[in-house]
Amino acid sequence: MKTTPRVIYNFDPSFISAVPPRDGGYARPITREYVESFVTEVAHRDVDALFCCPSMLRRQLWLSKIDAHWEDEAPNLEEPPNPYNWEWDDKLYFRMRHYILSGGKPIHELYEASRREGLSFFFSYRMNDCHYLEKASSPVLDKFWRDHPEFRINDYGGVHPNMHPQLVNLLQNYMHPEVRQHYLQILEELLVNFDVDGLELDLMRKPCFVPLPKVEEGREVMTGFVRDVRSLLDRYGAERGKDLPLCVRVPHTVQSCYDLAMDIVRWDVEELVQMVNVSTSFLTNIFALDIRGFRDELKNARVYGEMHGTIAYGKKYPNYGRRFLRQTTVQQYETTAYYLMKRGADGVSLFNFVSSRQHEFNDPRALAYPGTEPPLKALDHLGDREYLETCPKHYVINRMIVDGREYRVCAVPAQDDLVTEIELFEEELTKTYGDAVLRVETEDPSRHLPIASYINGHKLEQFEGTGELFPPLSIEGLASLESLRYFRVPVSVLRTGANALEVHNEQRTHPKDFTIFVYIELALYPRVRKATQ
After folding, report:
1. Which H or E run includes 297?
2. Between the CA of residue 461 and those of 48, 396, 464, 485, what are the distances in Å?
3. Rounded distance, CA 115 to CA 411, Å?
4. Rounded to an integer, what distance in angstroms lies between the CA atom of residue 469 and that of residue 398?
């Protein structure tokens, strides 16, 4: 087991309920073998550590003495009628309830499988999970949240960068010492019951802990809380004769963390945290993660860049359930890992990797878009920089959307004129790569418009493309050809370092037909393809 992992695999046990067994449907009961399969399928690949969330949204999945739900409440709950009409939280909860009440212990089983397979094991605890807070009767809500409305934020006092005001107000307020003490007790209970290799505080679920007018005071409060967690780890680590690192999962820039009461620079100076996991929530965005900024500011902690099972929103269609999500491919995982480590990351982490299997449990969408297997092959070389140097590359400039709200930190969306830079770290571009393609996607159909693209001042030749630049994981959420334009990129015009990229709508007639660029892709194809592993 590596004490300083390079590739971290975060697993949310909600997927145990959300995903049907591969050799059966949702009606088939969960088994221990099925639970353990989520570990064994990633073991013996280039994954060093399993970061296991010990809850299903807000519902603890071990037999907790602090919230004895599975002994006191769960046996007396009645399932809603007609599973085809269950809401999503019911779908998760009642499948898991069947398993736990029949003797299943999902967190213990994930822990034991990780130990057996030689993976380091961390708990990743969600410090303010927001799922289903607006539904007070939801079975996935913990007792402490239900019983103490007085400990919620209730009045945020401003605009949160990516959360709806009503949802923010339902989160727990860490200015109350009772909230901080509750979470310390939960974390200590996990440390007592499991001989872990470290903890992660998941501060991205959700990154709001104090009302806006209390942010300055809240930074002190949150720093005190992190100190208390560090003390817990020091105490139990000393008893067990090993160091227990503390990781924090945080927003995409140092400033965003600071603005939301997370003074990570101070945490680093005081050596409270040993690992900082930088995240864009749940959609991969290669250029929004300010890895270089974290690397410059943090002098002690290791920095990780996070990748996600989905990379972009697609169109939403009536009667098909939840929003389509474009799935992250092998090439996008490998490209992202390479880019983030070249930017200064010590390693990478994966979040929601198995989400492509999930298709909503009797949702009408599942009939047309059944779940697809995640790209397990992508896990074989994520920490191998030499391998990644010459892989096929698929760079994506996409929007940064978190929970339906957009951060304006990326080159897209851009109306009519996009001017940006794309940094490439490949050392021998012309020797390694023989072909390259730029693909431009617009928000609405734009085939009738004169779109022109330039790289380093070189005007690119347009051609009639007919599909994806690399095989997609599924057809879910893919762009329409009416919104796509393709350009050949001579590899000779690319350079190691910054590359100037321009895309323009060159229509000059009046009235002008505007268009919005939403997704820019650059594919690099090696001269010699790597053999399939």
Report:
1. helix 291-297
2. 44, 20, 10, 11
3. 43
4. 15
